[in-house]
Amino acid sequence: MKRNLLRGAKTLLLAFFSALLFVPAHAQESFSQCKTRLNEMAVNRGIDRETANSVFAQLTYQPRVIELDRSQPEFVQTFPGYFSKRVTQWRVDKGREMLAKHGALLAKLNEKYGVPPHYLLAFWGLETNFGSYKGKMPVLDSLATLACDPRRSDYFTQELMVALQLLQREGLTAQNMIGSWAGAMGHTQFMPSAYINYAKDGDGNGQINLWDSEEDALTSAANFLAQLGWQRGFRWGREVNLPDNFDYTLAGYSDRRTVAQWSALGITKTDGNPVGTGDLTAYLVVPAGHQGPAFIAYPNFRVILRWNNSEFYAIAVGHLADRIAGGPELSAALPELPAYSRTSILSLQKELNRRGYDVGKPDGIIGPATRAGIRQFQTANQMIPDGFPSLEVMQAMGIKLDT
């Protein structure tokens, strides 16, 4: 209870001080001056002056956006926690329902773009629960707030300009452009730059509306994935079984091999058959260490990462797609793992560096460098070198767990 109260107080203080950022008169003037500059920039880029003036006159600063931009999660999410919350029976059932509803369209999209229906549905399900939650922040206000903030001003200024182009091109209204705090929009949560470059009119009404048209959203997702490099006729990857005494130093993108080579190493599908005999390149992903499931990732896995650069996300999309198409649940059980605090991971990184396993500047994030350092430590200490910060590793390194 005390910990929850402290956490709640911390959140309130963050919100309070974030709100203070633009409360003083000079700060209000600063946002006002920024809007004036952006208004002129929009006009210079082809936005009708009357439209630009009307939009910018109504834009308001969103302190919550800055708070979210600055905030970091207190705990580091593990694969079991991430996966179990996203690949749910509800999403599987809803995906199959949407497959029946949009079957004809999805078949046409598969023929044109080469992206099978179940993958489009999996993206849709993970992004917005099939359109049931598209965000609640005013997109133009959020983008203007971030464009006037120095941290990533150039990026969000560009996204704001593109959003205004979309508003004008598609006959949208600022009031209807609702999305995430960072400006992602519609059923598929496209940023404005993705919207303007890849979105398509799927229902043929002459407008591309990713909020109100499921047909537009699915068509746009198919085009986006095709443009990102989706390989027609291939899977994302699959869950696999690893042989006893497998060398876990072979896991990761840096050690890519053909499926024939992986088969020669004893890796099989979960039904015991070889993963393949061809020259398709793949790599091994072990997101929860040697005690959890293992996956072989094909080139389309990398395409999913271009949509969202998270291996957890890519596995969730792939497996949810498989389930929607009638595939089984995971063969391997998800291990019970603690939710490590960022403080604990920072301590781990500092200790790895101190012991000579260079993982770079400690940041509390388990990335490739940290996994490599863990693997080196495990190898030196006769542990299974899966690069995963297991309890065994944390205890061996004397890391206090702040859970």
Automatic annotation (TrEMBL):
| Residues of the Transglycosylase SLT domain | 30-322
Gene Ontology annotations of biological process type: peptidoglycan catabolic process
Name a GO molecular-function annotation. Answer: peptidoglycan lytic transglycosylase activity
Q: Any idea which UniProt keywords this protein has?
A: Signal
Q: Is Signal tagged as a keyword?
A: yes
**Where does the signal peptide begin and end?**
1-27
Q: Which residues form the Peptidoglycan binding-like domain?
A: 344-397
Q: Please give the InterPro entries that the UniProt record associates with this protein.
A: Lysozyme-like_dom_sf, MltB-like, MltB_2, Peptidoglycan-bd-like, PGBD-like_sf, PGBDSf, SLT_2
One Pfam family name from the record?
A: PG_binding_1
Entry's NCBIfam families? MltB_2
Name this protein carries in UniProt: Lytic murein transglycosylase
Organism name = Alteromonas aestuariivivens
